Amino acid sequence: MIFSRIFFAVALFLFSLMLQSVSANTLIETDFLADKVASGQLPPVLNRLPENPQIVSFDGEFKPGRHGGQLRLLMGKQKDIRQISIYGYARLVCYTPDLELEADILESVDVEDGRIFTLHLRKGHKWSDGHPFTSEDFRYYWEDIANNPEISKGGPSKRLRIDGELPVVDFIDDWTVRYSWSQPNPFFLPALAGASPLYIYKPAHYLRQFHQRYQTEQRLAELVDKYQARNWVGLHVNRDRPYKATNPDLPTLQPWVNTTYPPSQRFIFERNPFYYRQDSNGRQLPYIDSVAVNIASGKLIPAKTGADESDLQARYLRMGNYTFLKQAGKRSNFNVRIWSTAKGANTALFPNLNTKDPVMRSLLQDVRFRKALSLAIHRHEINQVVYFGLALEGNNTVLPKSPLYKPEYQTSSAGFDLEQANQLLDELGLVNRDDRGVRLLPDGRPLEILIQTAGESTEETDILELVHDSWLDAGIKLYSIPSTREVFRNRIFSGDAMMSIWSGMANGLPNADSNPAPLAPTSRYQYQWPQWGQYYESGGTAGLKPEMKEVNQLLQLNHDWRMAINKSERHAIWQEMLEIHRQQMFTIGIIAGVKHPVVVNQSLNNVPLTGFYDMKPGAYFGIYKPDTFWFSEDRR
Amino acid sequence: MSKYIIRRILTMIPTLLIISMLVFVIIQLPPGDYLESHIAELQSQGEAVDEQKIAFLREEYGLDRPMYEQYFYWVTGMLQGDFGYSFEYNLPVTEVVGDRLFLTILISLVTIMFTWMVAFPIGIYSATHQYSWGDYGLSLLGFLGLATPNFLLALIMLYFANVYFGTSIGGLMAPEYINAPWSFDKLMSVLEHLWIPVVVIGTSGTAGMIRRLRANLLDELQKQYVVTGRAKGLPPGKLLIKYPLRVSLNFFIADIGNLLPTVISGAEIVAVVMSLPTTGPILLSALQSQDMYLAGSFLMFLAVLTVVGVLVSDLALAVLDPRIRLQGGLEK
Fold first, then answer.
1. Scanning A418, A510, B164, B263, which has its CA 20 to 30 A from the CA of A627?
2. Touching check for A523 and chain B: CB below 8 Å?
3. Residue A48: what are its φ and ψ, rounded to 5°?
4. Nearest CA of chain B to the CA of A188: how many Å?
5. Residue B151: what are its φ and ψ, rounded to 5°?
6. Cβ(B114)–Cβ(B199) under 8 Å?
């Protein structure tokens, strides 16, 4: 009896040993790191991966690949190297290509009642310098950064508050952290998954040396001097910029780690040997060994891309470059793919409902006037002339791929109907015209609409030129006023601007869990109601209180959405808000779904044939996980 | 002489002080400040703007202080050799500019040499063979160089160099050599890229110099001492080089005052178009983003060079041209 029990135990032990050796054998060491492993500088791959790494499987057009190669990218400014933190897209939780949230760096997240978030880290996960990544790194952020009165003057970031309330943060053990609020916080996980995310973890072991609490005063003074900072706070903030990727010494969890100190014209990012993902064949990701970012003037980038100086380029390219790139692609070995963009509208008109001119204000606040303006825009013509007919014509709303989409959101009052437009304008009492055929306002002035532009894109002025012609047929004279971006915004904020042209909803692919705040007056950067937005933003100390019924309804719905407990409730609220926008036409969308050329080297695999290219929510290439891109034999 | 030099140096102080004020005010003139343009940029990228962080940066960069205080801080810093901090690069100004100075000076010197090598023979030929076919033909070429927009020429040459020689577009070396230690291959790569900016920047300068040299030399060639020399049987080449050419070079020495700052700043527009790693593009982008200490310190540096350059050329003229005398005015 005893014998058999011992036998069983021994057998079990042997079996577990065998299992371990099998899994060790199946992991494949990266050639790039083999020397360092052999010389003992780095542990073997088994010890570099977490105990429970994220195992990536591939299907459809995506295939598991091999290690090696250097990815060349072009950027216009040195500051742009932060794009690598976006493309890398290793986040605590992340969006999948279907825009669902899933645990990424975290092993899992438990959510209770939408207000208690328990984050489980991967045991054995390490920073890029090999130091363990544990709840201490979360504690350091929360206690020594977010709640340090010198580093964070007003307390923790607004993004962590819900109605001003701060979370209770518990560090349960080395691998478990809990954030809890007393009411639901639907913003927390999306903020962690953002393209420019909320970092609630910091490499404590590295940053401590710059922190007053952990460093002797004398040494701190030396460091402040060495880095020419103003004081230790400036030093700490400056050393701790995970997003900007300017400090090669700062440990990271991203797939590639910067190795070049700025200033430079070329930055090399090398693979993170302690990355937490592997493929099903036992290869630690990323496949590509290094990323070389060359800085060139933004205007030269299309030409340089055409000369095959980039392996994956979309930034600084425009649809206007398409034919040139296509032709150049025949000489060199790259493909040009056409991706879509995810903005609710690439160009939209923003009638300023808070404009100073009282006559114009009451007109602009009348929904019939806004509808007339929309009906008098020939969107089809604009699409054909400016976008080769490849864009979507319609309102500033969600895109067809969003689960919230309804066709009427896009098409309602967005057709070209001069007759109806004229009829609406007549109804408003704007019947008298001057000798140019321009309608006269009630106070006798001609109906001249000045549209502010930021003066940055010729596309906008081309569109306005076309809008000008069709509006004139409705008796409205349009003038476009180019300025610079700062002046442009200040004119809108102050109410000097009557109307402006800018891009519409930043995220055209929301789902029920996305924040609907952009639909309600919540920020002064919403150019259709800057003062109302400022009122909300400042808690009522600045700006104007919204008076329109529908606008207050939107604010109420925005609030309800935050309090909503389940997805179907949120879905219903989104629909209601979109419906109000459809009826009220607060912004006049012109064109959406503009295509974007993406240049991909022929040897580069796993870049999807079609996708969408936008910062929100896609993190550009991020949600397609560039750590899974790989080069075929000939390029390695 | 030494009294004169001291007086000149002393007058430089108020000049530079006034320049520093002008520079500072002009940089501050556009509405907003660096953080405003920073916010605008973040938003156009769809990135989150953290008001708290902006407030922190405003204090950290001292942008919340009144303007005269900022000016005072900057000027006193400069006197101690601290040129301030670049907001855009998050680095001290000296570090941002430092690395690029060498390549800028290299391009400028090579360009100046190119200009001289082309302009001198042509200028002399045009003057000595006035109204000949050669004079007309070369003048036409020179004017073409002057009239063609530099940036256009730059783009065309970049394109053809890429298509026919496989030279990478823009920059001063192939990407793989950036940050690499100097080697023979790197040098060859630099030479391969260098000729385009040199030719482009050089063409317009060459034309101007040909015209000036020709005009000055023509003035001298008519003078009696030349006729006398010729009558006494001096060989034409020796006569030309020893007398009228030397005198006609005065304008050239007077030009040193302008030469010094251009050596450092390079040709901004061409450098931006060709994305050269020189100081010109830095200055331009610093002005655009209102990175005031970087822009201001850079402009001040140029101002100092101009003032010093003018002094040097004045002194050189006094030494080289026997007709120029300090006491001239006093004696009469």
1. A510
2. no
3. -90, -25
4. 14
5. -65, -30
6. yes
